[in-house]
Amino acid sequence: QWQGIETGIGNTQYSGQVTLGTAQSGSNYTLTDNARGGHKTYNLNHGTSGTGSLFSQSSDTWGNGSPSNAATAGADAHFGAAETWDYYKEVYGRSGIRGDGQAAYSRVHYGNSYVNAFWSDSCFCMTYGDGSGNNKPLTSLDVAGHEMTHGVTSATAGLIYSGESGGLNEATSDIFGTAVEFHADNSTDKGDYLVGEKIDINGDGSPLRYMDKPSRDGASKDYWYSGIGNSDVHYSSGPANHWFYLLSEGSGAKVINGVSYNSPTSDGLPVTGIGREKAALIWYKALTTKFTSTTNYAGARSGTLAVAGDLYGTDSAEYKSVADAWAGVNVGE
Ligand code: ASN
Ligand code: ZN
């Protein structure tokens, strides 16, 4: 039921003070974003099934920046859903995860000390744990973009979540999670090529993953090799994440928004970056028009080259950089 579009204020844990799409219901406000398909955010209050309760309160100011306030995670999740919606809508003209104008919904405070977040196609919903003692709630912007992108992948290429296609599925989520974070242009959570740097999942301040040199996490692969499909999908994603970094920013050392990167290539040859927007557009078009459920690394190479040829021509600098970046992660002809 349509309840109008209100603009609330969120005091988030990770993104500072933000505006939130809310709706009025009687004398209360709810986390219902009618400007973005009616996306709702629910409080599971430590449950693990159903929707718990829709965030509802008499004030339209949500959370206080601290995880001890239950609405803080609600504000972060609601903001992450809005920024993910806006990214796909503004950059690709895609309305919602399935492109049908329909919102998903978010659930926060899942279970107890749950150190993960996940997308589910069956509920068409997004769920966040609170983290445990030595890490934090999972509700950061790049995690929101990562997880909801699993829904986009599922609705498009349908990359099977194992083997090389599984690594490409995971990389797609890291690529667009990163792109969402940059596109949000939030002064508290600036864009970076790190995944999950805000949630301190390792308890030592390090991010979950690095795109410039994926092996910095101690497990991800920098370069493709025969048999990489036997690795966990969060590690076989490495070469595609690395390809995206190389194509966006080029090889070698660079500082972006105060973060230092140093991206090597497997062949020792340089790659010239074409910028993040073009790199993401090439991946998006490949995902939505070239990839299938069984696309592997060789198929990702040919699909992205085909897209770059269509967009920029096969004699273009962009086409050459796409090829060079694949060569740089050991994916050849
Ligand atoms: N957070 C994890 C991910 O999106 C959940 C999972 O294991 N699929 O990769
Ligand atoms: Zn994932």
TrEMBL record:
Residues of the full protein shown: 235 to 567 of 692
Cell location: Secreted
Homology family: Belongs to the peptidase M4 family.
Lineage, uppermost ranks: Bacteria, Bacillati, Actinomycetota, Actinomycetes, Kitasatosporales
Domain of life of the native organism: Bacteria
Source species of the chain: Streptomyces qinglanensis
Biological role stated in the UniProt entry: Extracellular zinc metalloprotease.
Active site: E147, H234
Protein name: Neutral metalloproteinase
